[in-house]
Each structure stands twice: as structure tokens, then as C-alpha cells.
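To the team - zinc ion complex, inputs and output below.
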Amino acid sequence: MRRERQGKGGLVWLLAIYALLLTAGLLSALDGRYVRFYMNGRTEMELPLGTRYVEPGCRAVSAGRVFGEGRRAIPVAVSGTVDADVPGDYVLSYEARRGAQRYHASRTVHVVDRTAPIIRLESREGYSLTWFDEYEEEGYSAWDELDGDLTAQVSRTVYDDRVTYKVADAAGNQCIVTRRLPFTLGRPTITLAGGEQTQYPRSLRYVDPGFTATDAQGNDLSAFVRVTGEVTPTVCGSYARVYTIENGRGDAVSVTRQIEVVPAALPEIAEPEEKTIYLTFDDGPGPYTGRLLDVLADCGVQASFFVTCNSPDDLDMVGRAAREGHTVCVHSASHDYGAIYASEEAFYRDFEACEDMILAQTGSYTRLFRFPGGSSNTVSRFNRGVMSRLAENMSAMGYRYFDWNVSSGDAGGTTTAEGVYQNIVSGCAGKQVCVVLQHDVKPYSVAAVRRVIDWGRENGYCFKALDLTSPPMQHPIAN
Ligand code: ZN
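Output:
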């Protein structure tokens, strides 16, 4: 009986143990334990060439779904090496054991060359050049820690005031070095007076507003500027002029000016409010012009001179007249009717020659002129209609021609100061505004001037020089 009870009790125990084992096995199977790695640092890392590799290490623990991570670290064996002096990819292997099972992790280390080569420039003592000269290389070398001497691989470009040297090592690391050229005359900068967009009133000629060329060192390089591009100032339209400085190396500095030739505008004519006499003297300067200027200065009167180039010795009187406040206007360079009225072109060329003389003497151009013979002349009839065409074209180009309403007769039958005086006085009498024609190449005409001024002042006239707003007293054109 006792034995039986004993036998029964053992069986229960056996069954219990069996059940326990079964449960433990089942749980263990559900847990699925393995080794988990915790890497210190990245699994994929970059190491600059030449830098010592320090293993960041790795921790391993057992882990499972049911019972979680174990507390104790499992030893990890690291295998593999990194040669920090040789670029490449190195794989490090980590191994941990759990029972008979081996577990692995890995890390890749990329040893890379990140060091650029170095370019060294040499300079020659005392060497200098201008922007116009070819640069003589002073010397350079290139060195890379890994690839060694790279001097032969250096590419070199000379541009303007600098040389650029460029080289790359096998890993693609680039070095760029710039040398400033030791210039005495540097790269020019061209500056256009009046700007790059200009409007120009239709004219007989184009007068460029000018330019300057300088370098950073402050040298004036204007003399090296070449100007190309034609402007036809007599024809409205768009034109371009290019201002260029080139050197022998094929570098060029250039600036373009856009010129719009637009219709010329003349100011409105303003009738003087007071009684006014405009004394005008044609065909000079001549031997008596200086005397005339003295009289005018003495009387404090300003007059107008329609000048020619026919007396080269007296041309300085043109400058004097301008300086003393008189108005200098174009008459003609040659005053040769047959030549100047032969064609419009001939007239323009003669006109320009006279303008040039005026510019040389006074420093500026004028837009006031008087046709030789006056606009009503008939001496030009050998060229039919030339006066009509010239009057129209010159006005369209912004020039205003002046005739007269009082003639002194000094170019005709009158040859005495008394006669000239009488003609002027009788011509002026009763007129509010007088434009008096005289010739300062006639001594008797010059001799009459002081009396004319006295008479004018006594009769309430003031004396003025012409300007573009003065009454032009234009005659009816007869050709
Ligand atoms: Zn004349």
C-alpha cells in the first residue's frame, strides 16, 4: 500500500518535470535567442589618408523575443586591418559566439586621399611688364603627398593681369593658384565721356564726346585706343562706335557707344524787346579786324563776325573776338562762289574747313552762319536750286543762317567811312531791330563803326551780338 503510494507519487513528479521541460523548450523556441551587435561609430566610415585608424569597438549581447536582452556582454573578436597610408576600402569583421553558434557584423573603412597638391610659384626679382607685353613665366612647381611631382600636369592660362595655374592629383583633389602679373601698365579700362547710349542732333559732322583709358595703377592709356565705326551725322539713324585697346596676346578691352542721330532742334527765335542793332562783319579776319576789336572794346559793344580763312596771318583775331565776347560764326573757308556752290558736298566741305578753323581759334563750334552772298544770292544760279537745298538741309541739321536787313553798302559802291555811316543810319532809321551788314576787310567800313555806335545810342538802340535766338533776317531765296 505504501509502496503503491510511493510509486504513484514518483510518476506525478516525473510528469511534472516533463511538463516543465516541455514548457521551457517551447518558450526557448519562441524566444529565438541570438547575438545582437552594437557598433560604436558608423559601419561605413571615411578615414583621411595618413590618419591612424582607432577601432571604435563593438558590444555584443544575447537577445530574444520573449526574454529580451541579456545583461552580460559577450566577447567580440575583431579581425581585419586598415592601412591608413594606402587609399582603399577595408572591411573589419566582428565575431561573437553563443554556444556553438557564431554571429558576425562588419564595418567598412574607406581610406581616402583628401589632400590637394600644392603649387609653388617663383618670382624673378625686379621683373615687371606691361599689359601689352608677353608674360615670361617666372617658374612654378606642383607637389602632391601621394602622387609626388605633378609639375608637368599643371595647366596654365594667362588672362589680363593674372596667370592661373591648375593641377589635380589622382584622387581628383584640385589646386588652383593665381599669380598677379607685376604690371607697370595694367589692363585698361575705357570710359566714354557722355556715356554709352547717346543722342546726337543731325549735323554736318560727328564730334565724338571723347573717352579716357586708364589702368588700375592710374596710367593714362588713351593713346592706345583705336576707334572704329562710322557715324553719318547728316543722316538720322543708329550708329555704333567701338573703342578698343588690344595687346599682342589677343586680349582686348572694348566699349561700344550707340549713337542715335536725331533731328536737330533749333531754339525759338526771340524778338528783342528793346530797339536793337546787331553789327555784323563779314569776310574777315583781315588787317583791320584788330582795330575794329579795339573800337568795339572801347565802346563796350559786342558784335558778330562771319569769318573766312582767307587771311591766314590774321586768324588769331578770331580767337580774340571770341574771348572779348563777340559771336564768331561761319561764313566760308574760301568764299569762292564757283567752288562752294558747285554742289552741296562742296559747300559742306568748305563749311567744315571754316568750322575747323573756328574750333582751333575759339575751342568750340558754332551753329550760326551766313551764306556767302547771302541766302538770296543769284551768283549760285549756275547750279539750279542749290540755295533752296542748302537752306533746307542746313536748317534741318541744326544750323541757322543769318542775312541782314540793313546794308552798309561797303562791298558795293560805297568806299568812304562817311558813305558807310550814312547808309547804316538811313537803313536803321525807323527799324526796331537792325541786323547790319559790314565787311571788316574794308578799312573805311571799320572807320565808320564808332560813329554808328554813337548814333545808335543817341537814338535809343542797344547793341548786341547774335545768338541762335536772334532774328535771322532771312531773305527770300532766289535760287
Ligand atoms: Zn562774304
